[in-house]
Design a protein that fits this description.
The N and C termini lie far apart (114 Å). The protein has a three-stranded antiparallel beta sheet. It has a three-stranded mixed beta sheet with strand order 2-6-3, with no helix packed on it. By secondary structure, it is of the alpha+beta class. The radius of gyration is 43 Å and the shape is elongated. The protein has five helices and six strands, in the order H-H-H-H-H-E-E-E-E-E-E. Among the domains are: 92-138; 141-196, Head domain of nucleotide exchange factor GrpE (Nucleotide Exchange Factor Grpe, Chain A, domain 2, Roll). The longest helix has 47 residues, at 42-88.
Length: 196
């Protein structure tokens, strides 16, 4: 049997399936379903509707309970992650400061035996510069105050003295305590003396 004969046979089978006889066989099944629905009493119809509604309600209730449990788990997980961030958030900053602490410990040991005050001073200045560098790497910067106009967003005036010259009126003459910002947010205002 070649391919053409197979094709012809399969077309004939399809034609036989779609004959009026097969369509006629399908119609009684549809009519039976329609009759069953019509034969139901109003009470039975209401009972079926109630069962369908109850099933839909049960499905929605199940979905709600699952969603509620999933959200509760999400909330607990995020609270736990937030607590861990708060507890361990400064870990990076603190580990970068530890080498500075080591330098201070070595300096203190050497101070016990050292006789050269200039060498001790130089060592402490090196440690200070290293510490300021570490702070800068962690986003901490000193607030510049020298002869700047008073800005209450960054400065806190603790004293007002007469200005030595006309240009210095309303400007900062001295900084009593250095202020710092962390990633552009003030974490400590600079305490300054202002000329008037």
């Amino acid at each position: 049997m070649d391919a053409n004969e197979k094709k012809i046979n399969s077309e004939e089978e399809l034609m036989n399936e779609n004959t009026p006889e097969t369509e006629a066989a399908a119609q009684p099944q549809e009519e039976e379903k329609a009759q069953e629905e019509q034969e139901l009493t109003p009470e039975e119809a209401l009972k079926q509707e109630l069962e369908k509604a109850q099933q839909a309600l049960d499905d929605q209730k199940d979905k709600y309970l699952r969603l509620s449990a999933e959200f509760d788990n999400y909330r607990k997980r995020t609270l736990k992650e937030k607590a861990e961030l708060i507890l361990n958030g400064g870990e990076k900053s603190l580990t970068s400061i530890l080498p500075v602490v080591d330098d201070f410990e070595r300096a203190l040991k050497n101070m016990e035996q050292a006789t050269d005050v200039a060498a001790i001073r130089e060592g402490v200045e090196l440690i200070y510069n290293k510490f300021i560098t570490v702070l800068g790497q962690n986003g901490v910067k000193a607030i510049d105050t020298k002869e700047k106009p008073l800005d209450t967003d960054f400065h806190e005036a603790i004293a007002v003295i007469p200005a030595p010259s006309e240009e210095l009126k309303g400007k900062i003459l001295d900084c009593v305590q250095t202020g710092y910002t962390l990633n552009e947010k003030v974490i400590r205002h600079a305490k300054v003396v202002v000329g008037e």
